[in-house]
Amino acid sequence: MPREVTIAPSILSADFGHLAQDVAAVAEAGADWIHFDVMDGRFVPNITVGPDVLAAVKAATSIPMDVHLMIREPERHIEAFARAGADVITVHAEATTHLHRTLTAISDLGCRAGVSLNPATALEAVTHVLDEMDLLLIMTVNPGFGGQRFIEPMLSKVSDAADLLASVDREIHLEVDGGVTVSNIAAVCQAGATAVVSGSGIFKTASYAETIREMRSLVSRP
User: N or C: which end of the chain has fewer CB within 10 A?
Assistant: First the structure.
């Protein structure tokens, strides 16, 4: 289990009528990153938000913006999100034809580059781009909607991903997204995650601060 786990609340489960307030509140409650889910209605069924909303969210807090592009042809939009304030930009291996080129372009824009894999996508999809990656995101639900239940067999995939990244002579974050709550965050981090995304697991609780504090207590090591 990593000594320091990054906690990234996902705005997909926030109150969009009071988005700036919700973002500021989770930042104040101890979040490390804000996870910003972008959906296009093509790669995934849902449609969410774009660069203008990211710029507004960025203005509400100083903590890093972790932008997850669940969109087809993400290479067409990465510059807009970088300009809007993204610190990390993650694209899906399944959504871009030239993954190596896309990751290089993200880095050239001054952002950390991430690759996300759907539950059914094998880790082999990223073995040829490890040198271009700063983050690997393992989806533990099928992307497109918030509030889904964690797919338990994905724990072994997280563990395998941790082993893969351990073979690389550079730091690559291992992020897990989908159904992470106080009930399973310990198992997720024990499997090797160094960053966790939680939407309804944080935003749908009575106290963001108490929830994040409890999450940290469950994954902390002396």
Answer: C
Place of tokens 């338990």: 152
Q: Which of 22, 32, 40, 177 is catalytic?
A: 177
| Set 22, 32, 37, 66: catalytic member | 37
Clarify whether 169 is annotated catalytic: no
**In the chain, where the domains are located:** 6-219
d(CA 130, CA 199): 27
**CATH classification (class only), 6-219:** alpha beta
Mind listing the pLDDT tens digit of every residue in the chain (222 residues)? 555 899 999 999 999 999 999 999 999 999 999 999 999 999 999 999 999 999 999 999 999 999 999 999 999 999 999 999 999 999 999 999 999 999 999 999 999 999 999 999 999 999 999 999 999 999 999 988 887 899 999 999 999 999 999 999 999 999 999 999 999 999 999 999 999 999 999 999 999 999 999 999 999 765
Please indicate whether residue 15 is annotated as part of the active site: no
